[in-house]
TrEMBL record:
The keyword Signal is annotated on this UniProt entry: no
Source organism phylogeny: Bacteria, Bacillati, Bacillota, Clostridia, Lachnospirales
Keyword hit for Isomerase: yes
Reaction(s) the record says it catalyses: beta-D-ribopyranose = beta-D-ribofuranose; alpha-L-fucose = beta-L-fucose
A biological-process GO annotation: fucose metabolic process
The entry's keywords: Isomerase
SUPFAM superfamilies: RbsD-like (SSF102546)
Gene Ontology MF terms in the entry: D-ribose pyranase activity; fucose binding; L-fucose mutarotase activity
Protein name: L-fucose mutarotase
Amino acid sequence: MLKGIPAILSPQLLKVLCEMGHSDTLVIADGNFPSESMGRDGIVIRMDGHSAPEVLEAVLELFPLDSYVSQPVSLMEVMSGDTVETPIWDTYEEIVKRRSGLEGSAIGHIERFAFYEEAKKAYAVIATGEKALYANILLQKGVV
């Protein structure tokens, strides 16, 4: 056991976060995201019993966001014609602001298939049990 480490963060995830360097990316994926196929060449960490906001909260307690880019956080855009509501994005914005001090303008949006391409290049994908649609989030690591 360690002091000051959120209990939700497994030893495997802590190792991955520590291994990552400046500009490496991390995906926190919802339950519908094809985590295993997107993370085929990288690392997939299963956290099926947890929501994406609780994972984001814990990760950002330790993970610095990249201050050298304008948008170190990216969300998957809603597909044109899809009428899905995305209240989880407000939750993400509040967590990012509280944990990193960055404003909502630090959060960008990436078209769905472009998001998949970025996810394939990510250092790791965290597969959560999040049920909200369009709840996938990409984080770019900064420096301490």
